[in-house]
Amino acid sequence: MSRPDLPRLVLRADGNPRIGLGHVMRLLALADMLRPDFRTTFVIQEPSAELLALLTAAVDEVVEMTAQPAAGEPAWLAQHVLQPDDILILDGYGFEYNYQQDVRPHVARLVCLDDLHSFPSAANLVINPAGGVSAADYDLRQPGARLLSGPAYAPLRPAFLAAAASAAKRQPAEPDTILICLGGADPSQQTQRVAEALLALASVRQVNAVVGSAYQGWDALQQWATDQPRLLLHRNLAAADLVALMQLCGAAVCAPSTVSYEYCASGGGLLFTQPLADNQRGIDRFLREQGLALPYHSAANVLTSGEAARVAERMRLAQHQHFDGRVAERIRRAFAELAAADSPAEQGAVATSAASPSTAAPDGLTIRRATADDARLYFDWANDPAVRRNAVHTEPIEWEGHVGWFGRRLADSAAYLYVLEQDGTPVGQVRIEFDGEHVAASGIIDYSVDAAWRGRGLGTAILHRALQQLRQDRAGDWTVVGQVKPQNEASARVFERLGFRRWGTRRLHDEPYDVFLHAAAAFGSPA
Question: Which range is most confident: 270-284, 341-355, 361-375?
Fold first, then answer.
């Protein structure tokens, strides 16, 4: 167990056959990642004996809360559990804005795992495992609040992180062996129905169905399985055993939840998703849009098409791009930054550099399209020594060449040049150049902050404001791309705060660049 002198995380979630175990398992994965840096206390209402044993083995302390409605919880927590130096982490759909406001005064920091973004947030930090979302999708009301989103920040258990780190070296399994895992509880009892449909396909050699301790149809499922020689049942598998089983299955039918991410991290393959609850829609959309999964209703056609192996390989390569096994180090860094802001005054000081741009952007920040009169302004910004160091072409820019280049960009309908001003003073620029006007066009981002305004967190604010404006200026679907030199950590953090996802590296002029991607839809409707 953890050292008693470490700061404490208080984890609050419930799990049972009705709501499943997803919230609990996510917090346990998060607790495991943060174990070197924090003590952990888990607060839960009415856990089953099996779940209580799991929690007791995983955290430093388990507190069984008196059964009560959500409205009564903050006072109970304040009286029985919470201490002023705690970081409280909430995962569940009853912890709405008023609840968060009521517990905030009793802790140092508040963190929420939230994949619905359906109500305002009073948290300092929000984690959404779904990709394709940004701070603009949230109503983040706490000054300095941050959003961490996508697989890069999805809490996964150590066995899955280790598997992800070596997934590319592993020989993939054939898609005729299929995993079914619709969550630990499968409250709508879909496991047998899906297994029956898959076993009816001649191309399927074996089906492995996995359920958890909260699954209530186990006896009936076992009885039915006695007449299914190609079906193997598994219940309440340990993480290492589930990894091993997933690696034997070249195809899977999963709920679009943590279990889908676990399958991708274990090595992946032909993944079909079957949403069972509204909160799974975000991950489902992300997996399908990124080519990481297909809808379950297409499973029969794909598995019997003769193309299953080819589709599985393509999907597996895409999955490896998103699951690199480095989630724990990112999460630990984020929580270290969160814990380091020791007072409200200090928190306000770092808000601009670690903030949700929707809440922390300066009130007087405005945006406009660049004009010919801005040629000198762009020229001076482009020749700033720090800008040149991080540019693809590092040599100084000549005025004559700049004038011609600037005029061509202003005339190009696929180029968007913006000037950001703070109370009328130019403070930075954002330029986004698309590779044409076609539907699938992608835009390369270039941005910079005036030297006199650096160190105030404006990079995040101006880029977020420009992307909002671009959503109005350019119709249709598109993707924007950031290219960052590895040593430019500040710029990488800007893209991550805005919900961009890392997409490997590319070489430009024989130098490596980290690539960040974001889809237009993630920035929401026009402001």
Answer: 270-284
Same domain, 380 and 308: no
The C-alpha torsion from 185 through 188 and 192 to 197, rounded to 10°, is: -130
Are 447 and 463 members of one domain? yes
Per-residue pLDDT for 56 more than 70? yes
pTM for this predicted structure: 0.65
Name the DSSP class of 66. P
- The edge-to-edge listing of strands for the beta sheet with 425-434 is 365-369, 415-422, 425-434, 442-449, 479-484, 511-519, 501-508
Give the pLDDT band (50/70/90) at residue 157: very high
Which strand (E) or helix (H) includes residue 208? Answer: strand 206-211
Q: One of 23, 106, 322, 518 is an active-site residue; which one?
A: 23
CATH of the domain at 200: 3.40.50.2000
| Domain CATH for 46 | 3.40.50.11190
Q: Please tell me whether residues 148 and 221 are part of one structural domain.
A: no
The rounded distance, in Å, linking the Cα atoms of 6 and 39 is 6
Annotated binding site: 157, 262
Distance CA 52, CA 24 (A): 11
The answer to whether residue 343 sits within a structural domain is no
Q: What is the torsional sign of CA 297, 300, 301, 306?
A: positive
In tens, the pLDDT along 205-230 reads 999 999 988 888 899 999 999 999 99
Q: Is residue 24 part of a domain?
A: yes
Look up 23 and say whether it is catalytic.
yes
Question: 44 by DSSP, 3-state: which?
Answer: strand
DSSP-derived pairing of the beta strands 39-45 and 206-211:
unpaired
Domain span at residue 189? 158-322
> Domain total for the chain?
3
Cα 154 off chain centre by? 6
In a domain, 348, yes or no: no
Average pLDDT, the chain: 88
Q: Last residue of some domain: 267, 291, 322?
A: 322
Binding residues for substrate, by number, are: 157, 262
The region of weakest confidence among 51-55, 295-299, 503-507 is 503-507
Virtual CA dihedral for 95, 96, 100, 102, nearest 10 degrees? -100
Hey, what are 279's tokens?
A: 């909160």
Judge if 397 and 417 occupy the same domain: yes
* Residue among 367, 351, 355, 359 nearest 422 (CA): 367
Q: Are residues 114 and 167 in the same domain?
A: no
pLDDT at 298: 97
216-223: long-range pairs with CB below 8 Å, 24+: 216/17, 216/185, 216/189, 217/186, 217/189, 217/191, 217/192, 220/192, 221/191, 221/192
Summarised one tens digit per residue, pLDDT across range 444-489 is 999 999 888 887 778 999 999 999 899 889 877 778 999 998 888 8
